[in-house]
Amino acid sequence: MQFSLTVNGESLEIEAAPDDDLASVLRREGYTGVKCGCDGGVCGASKVLIEGSAEMACGKAVREADGATIRTIEGFGSQDDLHPIQQAFVDHFAVQCGFCIPGMIVQTKELLEETPNPTEGEVREAIDDNLCRCTGYQKPVEAILDAAERVHGDGAVATDGGAPSESTAHEATDRPGETRDT
Amino acid sequence: MTTEDDPKPDGGTASHTEQDVAALEDHPLEWDEPENNNLAPDERASVSRPAEKDDDPKLVTGQAKYTADYETQFPGLAYAAVVRSEIPHGYVTDVDTSAAEEMDGVRTVLTPWSEETPDAKYTSAGQSYPEPSPWDMNVLNEHVRYVGDPIAAVAADDAETARAAAERIAVEYEEDEYVLDPEDAYSEDAPQLFGDDEVENEIVGHDYSRNRMSQIEGEIGDVDETVDRDDVHVHESEWETIRQSHAQIETHTTLAYTDEDDRHVLVTSTQVPNHTRRQLAHLFDIPIRDIRVSKPRVGGGFGGKQAMVVEPIPLALSLATDRPVIYEATREEEFSAMRSRHPMKVRARTAVTDDGSIEALDLYALSNTGAYGSHGMTVAGNVGSKPMPLYSKVPNARFKADIVHTNTPQTGAMRGYGAPQGTLALEGHLDEVARDLDIDPIEFRQNHYMEVGDLDEIAGMMGGEGAERRIRSCGLDECIERGKEAIGWDDLEQPDEAQLHRGIGMALSAQGTGVAGDELGAAQLMMNEDGSFHLHVGGVDIGTGADTAFIQIAAEVLGCPETDIVIKSSDTDVTPFDYGAYASSTTYISGMAVKKAAEDAKERILYWGSKLIEEPESNLETGNGKVYSEETDASVDLEEIGYEAAYGHDEREHILGKGTHCTEESPPPFAAQFADVTVDEETGEFEVNKLVVAVDCGVAINPGMAEGQVEGANHMSYEMAVCEGITFDDDGRSAVTSFDEYDWPTASETPPIESILVETHEPTGPFGAKSVAEVPTNTVPPALSNAVREAVGVRITDMPITPEKIRAALEDDE
Fold first, then answer.
1. Of B66, B109, B349, B504, which one's alpha carbon is 20 to 30 angstroms from that of A164?
2. Mean pLDDT score, B557-579
């Protein structure tokens, strides 16, 4: 069957079986930043923003996402120009093997949209289904609290990712120089 | 091949001999350390600075490639699925593959009897050769020994078809009696898992008639004589640990293919590329040179990938179908058929005088190695040889272990490697003894623990060359002092509610750094004409940041920016030999190889610098991307040296450096753990308010990364204290098939963890470094047990610590 998705600003017509899970479909399309760490819907590594809401792509059939606007980790910053959330994770040594990190960054994005200045408890609750085996959560929590400062606090980091590439264009609102990511 | 006459250094059975005593003299306190190894903090340009992780920009943008991400690069890729035993013990009498083979998209089905299925015995343990583990496994099994043992494998055009085909394969069994409990398995009338001709490379102390794969023992002094003395009290307690899952988020994944040069390539998520290559060569009877094992980014290992767990299956399927094949283990398979920490019962016994002098220490472990013996003997050895040396001043010490098979999944290496089990028993036991003697538990430990200059004989009592050691760095005192301050040891406030009681428990730990006398790391450095470098290292970054540490070490020697070094690690076709990422050896062993390679290259850089500056090499140093004269301040950029060396008129040279490192040393890092807990004496409910762990890892090559290692290890240790781990139903079936059922502490269920790095200088390590990643895995179970004891007076000895157990113990007390 044919499905329409808007992924990181790019319109895609995708051939897939209706029961195919969205994570596998996105991975086949080259969005391999969407990770699969469990047998579906538990570990959080496959989180993407669907209409702005962080969801596990592996727990969702592609037909349920037909027509949706999706943002994957590839739609955040580029390696040369990281999104403030990404930069906070780097600066706090919150990244070890990195397998769970794209999902955690996606979840952080949703958290900071809804709760600009979260408490530590709110941060921990927010990433409760983003399982990480490497860090003990201490540094990710510190990174997310700092990311809140960077995104919303005084003297926030202005950058929000580099220029959109051909395959992974950013959402219009996130283009550098237009609006700051808040 | 390992035999009874040839025990391996990391777990053998030799008792203490005159020869060993003589060997101690080979461990002088003075260490001939190169001048450049002991830099003052302000002299370090790259080392001990929190450098950004080299692969972080790729990791946080989702651009980093793990094994499964190579999928899209292989048109015609086939997908593997495995048929696993439904019974805990028996024989496969028939495998009907016809329904599966008729399915569209199925390329092949392999059974134990297929021509392409290797039939050699092997061990999955990723250890040095000859492996100190029995060769007791087959790739596909006719004799199955646990629910989950692989029987058949399918390759199909897509993953769904492969899984559906696997479900259509009908297996008939002749069922056998089975045994799940290690004590039952060790009894003489228990069902026997291995017949006489089913094991090669048998390990010392084996007795398969009692399901024992190994028995080991070591002693210094005379424990039996000491416990019989009139002037000592004998204390004894028994402790039990869980079957912990590695639970690395990336499951075991391997992609196998044969390339255009007829080379068999495995892109695989492994900690041990070189061991895997050797083991595959053995299994498939292919020359080592024709196998290439390449490690991309690895999504965590923790010991679970210090084993060749899945690689033979995609390779066999690839050879059978003549196409690339990928095998990604499911999460259910991770819990039911991959590896786990050995569950153990450990008995601790001490003989102590009235004034608190420990005269003898005695540990006995019964280890459940599951259906197969990989890492069985060596992990059990470390139950004694890692924690006990902490008290190296105790004159009489003994450790003994029985390692037995049960019809449960295979155990294996896991972060801590036996030390967590031994540390629980030792540190919980000593805490209770101190209470009994009414001696402050910290002071009691301090009276016996090791310090700089000590000749540690306990580490050597299990035998093996080089296992005895001289302690040349030890920050235990500072670990305790700073830990006490951070946890608030001296000003603990009790809650207002009368039924709530707060207490702090503490525990110490020591580990090793590499396997003494049984390690090898190598590295190679190539200079480009623009003054940049390619660093090729066999050491394996499994997510710890090892690549970054290697770059920092090389940059420190070369005096160049870290960004001028491009690293390639762990591809057996390209990078030098390395034993792999295990035994806390990576920074210490592979890092020292990197340092030597950089120094080797630096010699040639100074030679060319001397030509260009026209001053003797002895005047020259590297720094800030230049070679400069310490006398005249004249300097030349590394770039100019690169071009001159490559394109010079009268002489040319590709500047290359090589380094190989092996050592008899294995210096212990140390940790002091503190746990602050509030317990409800009515319900047994408890809350861990905070964990503090202070670690002496020598010089931290990258403090930010080192803290991350400490906190992650401490979280894993906390899980050992409060999580049920993998349990089984009465039929031997894993009760845990998903993360939801593996009830580990999530972010909101994890207490704050404060890590403290205590800097010492280990002269045998690169720039003073020793290991960091294992020692904080050992300490939360005893510290939390001790904290609960402090808070409400009851002692929990079998993990996990639960409100139900606390409540029951409180009721017993009444």
1. B66
2. 97
Cross-chain CB nearest to A134 (options B55, B63, B543): B543
Partner residue opposite B249 with nearest CB, options A79, A128, A132: A132
Q: What's the rounded Cα separation, in Å, for the pair B675 and B505?
A: 5
Summarize pLDDT for B210-266 with one digit per residue, the tens. Answer: 999 999 999 999 999 999 999 999 999 999 999 999 999 999 999 999 999 999 999
Work out the pLDDT band at B18, boundaries 50, 70, 90.
low
Contact B741, B733 (CB under 8 A): no
pLDDT band at B16 (very low <50, low <70, confident <90, very high): very low
Among B52, B56, B60, pick the best mutation site for testing chain A contact (most A Cβ within 10 A).
B60
Q: Which residues contact B84 (CB under 8 A, 6 or more apart)?
A: B147, B148, B149, B150, B151, B333, B336, B337
Residues 6+ apart with CB under 8 A from B400: B215, B216, B217, B218, B363, B364, B365
Helix (H) or strand (E) holding B602: helix B591-613
**Which residues in chain A are contacts of B302 at CB distance < 8 A?**
133
Are the beta carbons of B711 and A138 separated by less than 8 Å? yes
Would you state the pLDDT for residue A178?
A: 34
Contact (CB<8Å) B61/A74: yes
User: What angle, rounded to 10 degrees, do the helices at B419-437 and B780-792 form?
Assistant: 30
Q: Which ipTM value was assigned to this complex? A: 0.95
For residue B705, the chain A residues in CB contact (below 8 A) are 93
List, in sequence order, every residue forming a beta bridge with B571; answer none if it has no partner: B294
Q: Which helix (H) or strand (E) holds A104?
A: helix A101-114
Q: Are B331 and A38 in contact (CB under 8 A)?
A: yes
- Helix, strand, coil % (nearest 5) of chain B? 30, 25, 45
Q: How many contacts, defined by CB atoms under 8 Å, are there between A and B? A: 178
Q: Which residues pair with B671 in a beta bridge?
A: B509, B695
What are the tens digits of pLDDT across the range B477-497? 999 999 999 999 999 999 999
Which residue shows structure tokens 């016996």? B448
Q: Do B545 and A96 touch (CB under 8 A)?
A: yes
φ, ψ dihedrals at B36, nearest 5°: -75, -5
Would you state the pLDDT for residue B196? 84
Alpha-carbon dihedral angle through residues B141, B144, B145, B150, given to the nearest 10 degrees: 50
What global pTM score does this model have?
0.94
Q: Which is nearest to B803 in space by CA: B786, B788, B783, B782?
A: B788
B380-426 pLDDT, tens digit each: 999 999 999 999 999 999 999 999 999 999 999 999 999 999 999 99
How far off is chain B from A139, nearest CA to CA, in Å?
7
Residues B356 and B377: their CA atoms lie apart, in Å, by: 33
Quote the tokens at residue B620: 């020259």
Quick one: closest CA in A to B297, which residue?
A97
Structure letter (DSSP) for residue B668: P
Residue A69 sits at φ, ψ, to 5 deg, of: -95, 125
Q: How many whole angstroms separate alpha carbon B77 and alpha carbon B71?
A: 7
- Give the residue from B356, B321, B703 showing the smallest Cα distance to B545: B703
- Res B606 pLDDT > 80: yes
Token look-up 């994957």 returns: A72
Report the C-alpha dihedral over residues B30, B36, B41, B44, rounded to 10 degrees. Answer: -160
State the best of B56, B334, B673 to mutate against chain A, taking most chain A CBs within 10 Å: B56
DSSP per-residue codes, B493-550: PPPSSTTEEEEEEEEEEE--SS-TT---EEEEEEE-TTS-EEEEE----SSSSHHHHH
CA nearest to B753 within chain A: A138
Q: How many CB atoms lie within 10 A of CB B477?
A: 15
List B673's β-bridge partners, or say none.
B507, B693
